[in-house]
C-alpha cells in the first residue's frame, strides 16, 4: 500500500533550502535512489481539486497525480525496475519549492507555475496545464473588471506568482486597493464568503476546487479578463538529468498519443472545461520526435 508521509519543516529550514546551491546536490540522485530503494517521493496538494487533492479515502488523486503516475510507470520501464513505491508528502504554496530544492521531494505533482525565478532553484517538466489569473467574487459584489477593484479589499495567497501580478495590476491601473494576504486558497475563499475581502485574485485553475468546496457555489463568480500566461508543470530537483529526461519523454509521449487530452477530459470535463488553444500549443511544442 502506498504510504502517506507528513513532513513538518520549520520556516528557517525552508528559507535555507532555497539558497542551497544546486551544484551541492549529487548528480542523478533520484535515479540512484530508485535503484537502491525502489522508492520515489511525490509531493501533492491536499485540496487543489481536480488537479491534486485527497479523495474521500484520504488518498492523493487528481489530474496531476494521474499524469505523474504515468511518468513513474515509464521510469520503471526505462530503468528496468520491478517496482517503484511512492511515498506521498503534502505540500503547500509556501513549502513546495523548498522541499523540491532540498531534495526532500523527487517529483512535485501539483499546479506550480513555471517561472524564470523558480528555474534558479528547481527544474520543470513540460507544461501540464495553462492557467491565467482572474478574480473570484460574490455575484452581488458588482465587480466585473480590474477597474472595479478601486477602493476594495483583494485577497491573494502569499508565496505564489499571483502576488506580484496583483501588485502590477494595482500599479498599472493606479488603483486604491487594500491587499489581504492569505496562506492558501481555502483562506481566500473564506475571506470572500465572509466579506472580509471583496475578491480573491489567483490563477483560475484554483477556482474549480474552491467553487466546489463552497457551501453556496451559486453565489460565486469568476470575473475579470484573463491576466497573464501561467504555464504549470511538475517540479524536479536540480542535477537530475536522467530522471528529468524520463519526465520529458513520458509527457511528450502522452501529448503525441492523445493520452494527455484524455486525462485532462477525465478530470476537467465535469467542470465544463476543454483543452484550450494555449495548452494545445504548449503540448505541440513538447511533442518532439524520437
Describe the model.
The chain has 290 residues and is α/β, with parallel strands linked by helices. It has 11 helices and 12 strands. The protein has 2 domains: 11-130 and 230-285, Periplasmic binding protein-like II (D-Maltodextrin-Binding Protein, domain 2, 3-Layer(aba) Sandwich), CATH 3.40.190; 131-229, 3-Layer(aba) Sandwich (D-Maltodextrin-Binding Protein, domain 2). Helix content is 37%, strand content 25%. Strands 1, 5, 6, 7, 8, 9, 10, 11 and 12 form a 9-stranded mixed β-sheet that branches. Strands 2-3-4 form a 3-stranded antiparallel β-sheet, sandwiched between helices. α3 crosses α9 (241-257). The protein is elongated, with a radius of gyration of 19 Å. Mean pLDDT is 90; it is low at 1-24.
Short description:
This protein is α/β, with parallel strands linked by helices and 290 residues long. The protein has two domains: 11-130 and 230-285, D-Maltodextrin-Binding Protein, domain 2, CATH 3.40.190.10; 131-229, Periplasmic binding protein-like II (D-Maltodextrin-Binding Protein, domain 2, 3-Layer(aba) Sandwich).
CATH topology of the largest domain: D-Maltodextrin-Binding Protein, domain 2
Helical percent range? 25-40%
The end-to-end span amounts to: 35 Å
Strand content: 15-25%
- CATH top-level class of the largest domain: Alpha Beta
* Category by helix and strand content: alpha/beta
The ordered string of helix (H) and strand (E) elements is: HHEEEEHEHEHEEEHEHEHEHHH
